[in-house]
Amino acid sequence: MNILDKISAQKIKEVEIKKSILPIKILEQSVYFNMPVVSLKDAVIDEKKSGIIAEFKRRSPSKGLINNTADVEQTTIGYIEAGASALSVLTDEQFFGGSSADLFTARKVNSAPILRKDFTIDEYQIIEAKSIGADAILLIAAILDKQKVKDFSALAHQLGLQVLLEIHNAEELSVLSENVDMIGVNNRNLKDFKVNIQTSIGLSEKIPDEFVKISESGISKAENIIELKKFGYKGFLMGENFMKNQNPAKACSKFIVQLQS
Questions:
Q1: Which of 60, 100, 186, 200 is the catalytic position?
Q2: How many domains does the chain have?
Q3: Of the listed 60, 110, 166, 240, which one is catalytic?
Q4: What is the CATH number of the domain that holds 129?
Q5: What is the separation of C-alpha 246 from the centre of its chain, rounded to a whole number of angstroms?
Q6: Would you say the pTM of this structure is higher than 0.90?
Q7: 186 in catalytic set
Q8: pLDDT tens figures, 5-34
Q9: Per-residue DSSP letters for 23-79?
Q10: E strands along 94-134, which residues?
Q11: Phi-psi region of 20 (alpha: psi -120 to 50; beta: other; left: phi over 0)
């Protein structure tokens, strides 16, 4: 059983508990539920911006604890002030140390688009994402079949949310749905956790042109983004590279200055 299988199994249990504590009727009463969303897609394709989706995460299964002192409010505000195009917030608790409250907090103090980074295995989570202020959700091809991607992305669009479909190889493109807005290539090998941006480069020509391309994981130098742009990538999801610093927002600012110089 790989890490995605373990996370998915745990997520099924968590969602059932959440459904009993916070029914959909309660989620739909959230102040954010009927508010318009901000387009993540438009933010990353805007050539006047960096294309960086700066992520807030405390830990990961591959790296363990990354940062347990960073403040969600200060960090996310700092990311946007530094020039990030959008935000990503990890809301998985057991494996990444996040929570729905983290995204809710980020939403209260930011007008930039926010991606809810989690492991979506149930429609309940999509409704929950809308209720906590997300603008986009992540669907992971490795844990979903074609029908679920179709159903989940359709529901997301009904709620006004955009959809980022994450793939790790060309075979996973088979689950593509017309309601997917962006395709993210995760450069992390889930078997050995090694990261290589050549994964994004190798898959670039296989991704249909109508989908915005996002490269995820392993981006540590401005040169990486410059190279990835040559292959049609518009968005660049970066978390660990910033969060491993005591001041993630300052690290983000320094990186974007290097990118624009």
A1: 186
A2: 1
A3: 166
A4: 3.20.20.70
A5: 22
A6: yes
A7: yes
A8: 899 999 999 999 999 999 999 999 999 999
A9: -HHHHTTSTTTTSPPP-HHHHHH-TTS--EEEEE-SEETTTEE--SS--HHHHHHHH
A10: 114-117
A11: alpha
Asked if pLDDT for residue 192 goes beyond 90, the answer is no
**216 catalytically annotated:** yes
Q: What is the dihedral of CA 38, 125, 62, 174, to 10 degrees?
A: -80
Active-site residue, 57 included: yes
SS (H, E, C) 222-256: HHHHHHHHCCCEEEEEECHHHHCCCCHHHHHHHHH
DSSP letter at 195? B
**CA-CA distance, 225 to 235, in Å (whole number)?**
9
Full domain range(s) for residue 247: 3-260
Residues sharing a CB contact under 8 Å with residue 76, sequence separation 6 or more, in sequence order: 54, 56, 87, 89, 105, 106, 109, 110
Please state, in angstroms and rounded to a whole number, the distance separating the CA atoms of residues 237 and 86.
9
pLDDT digits (tens, 9 = 90+) for 75-114: 999 999 999 999 999 999 999 999 999 999 999 999 999 9
User: What tokens were used for 42?
Assistant: 């438009």
53 bridge partner residues: 86, 237
Known catalytic membership, residue 217: yes
**Residue of 15, 41, 57, 29 lying closest to 161 (CA atoms):** 41
Q: What is the pLDDT of residue 209?
A: 93
